[in-house]
Design goal:
With about 250 residues, the protein is an alpha/beta fold. The chain folds into 2 domains: about 50 residues; about 170 residues, Rossmann fold, CATH 3.40.50. The protein has 9 helices and 7 strands; from the N terminus they run αααβαβααββαβααββ. It has a 7-stranded mixed β-sheet with strand order 3-2-1-4-5-7-6, sandwiched between helices. It is elongated.
C-alpha cells in the first residue's frame, strides 16, 4: 500500500476543531447562551468543516498525483531526474504517466525529510516501499544528493521534474537548483516545476502553514527558469499547485 507519509493534519487537522466547536455549540444551546457567542462559534465550525473538505479533497497530499500537463516529455521515453523526490509521489507520477521512462529519484534524505515524513523507516526505505507498491521500482533509481549541486554530468537527462521541493529552499538556493537543473538536462529537454500555489483557498484553510518560500508570486518561477537557461512553454494552476513547463535552450 502506498503511503506518501505527509502529516495527518494536512488532511484531517481541521476535524478536531470542528468537533470541539460543535460540542461547545451544543453546550451553548443547552445552556441558552447569548446569540453573539453562538454565532461566532457557528462561523468557526463552518470554517473548520469547509477547510477540511478543501484539504481532504482539494489538496489530497497523500493521494496519487497526476501530471498537470500532458505536454511534459511528449516523446514518452527518456531518462528523468526527480529533484527532491521525497517519498516518491512525483517519481511515481512520471513513471505511471510515461511508462517507457526511467527516473532517478534524488533527495538529500536528511533532517528535513524526517521532519516531513516521520522517523519510522529510513528515507530510502520509505521511497523504495512506495515504488514497489506502485509496481515501478524496476524503472527507478534512488540517489542521495543536493539539488543545489547535482552529482551528474552536463546533459545527463532528457527531462527533469521537481514537485513541492525547490520552493522549500531560500531564494538563493532555488536559483542554484534551477541552474543545476538546466546544467544536467539536455538541450531541448523538459523541466516540469510544481510548487505550492498562492491561492486564496489555501490561505483560507491553512493560513501561512503551507507558504513555501512565502508562496512566491506566479512571476517568480518563470523568470527564474528563464534566467537559468530555460524557455517557458506552459504555465498554469491545479488544486494547490502552480506549475511551469520549461524547455532547455
Amino acid at each position: 500500500m502506498i503511503d506518501f507519509g505527509y502529516p495527518w493534519w494536512l488532511e484531517y487537522g481541521h476535524l478536531p476543531f470542528l468537533a470541539a466547536a460543535a460540542g461547545v455549540l451544543l453546550l451553548g444551546y443547552w445552556r441558552k447562551w447569548p446569540k453573539w457567542p453562538m454565532l461566532l462559534l457557528g462561523v468557526f465550525a463552518l470554517w473548520a468543516g469547509a477547510a477540511f473538505l478543501v484539504a481532504r479533497f482539494g489538496l489530497n497530499v497523500n493521494g496519487r498525483a497526476s501530471l498537470p500537463t500532458q505536454s511534459f516529455l511528449r516523446s514518452g521515453t527518456g531518462r528523468v531526474v526527480d529533484l527532491g523526490a521525497g517519498t516518491g509521489r512525483s517519481t511515481i507520477m512520471v513513471l505511471e504517466a510515461r511508462p517507457l521512462t526511467t527516473v532517478v529519484a534524488l533527495d538529500l534524505f536528511g533532517e528535513s525529510f524526517e521532519q516531513h515524513f516521520g522517523p519510522s523507516q529510513t528515507p530510502q526505505e520509505k521511497l523504495l516501499a512506495n515504488l514497489k507498491a506502485a509496481g515501478v521500482e524496476s524503472r527507478a533509481t534512488i540517489q542521495t544528493g543536493d539539488m543545489r549541486k547535482l552529482p551528474f554530468e552536463n546533459g545527463t537527462f532528457d527531462a527533469a521534474v521537481s514537485a513541492y521541493a525547490i520552493d522549500h529552499l531560500s531564494r538563493e538556493g532555488s536559483k542554484q537548483a534551477l541552474a543545476e537543473a538546466a546544467r544536467v538536462v539536455k538541450p531541448g529537454g523538459d523541466f516540469l516545476l510544481m510548487v505550492v500555489g498562492k491561492e486564496p483557498w489555501i490561505h483560507f484553510a491553512f493560513g501561512p502553514l503551507l507558504a513555501h518560500m512565502g508562496a512566491s508570486s506566479a512571476d517568480y518561477w518563470p523568470t527564474g527558469l528563464q534566467e537559468a537557461g530555460f524557455q517557458v512553454v506552459e504555465q498554469g494552476t491545479r488544486p494547490g499547485t502552480f506549475y511551469v513547463l520549461a524547455r532547455r535552450l
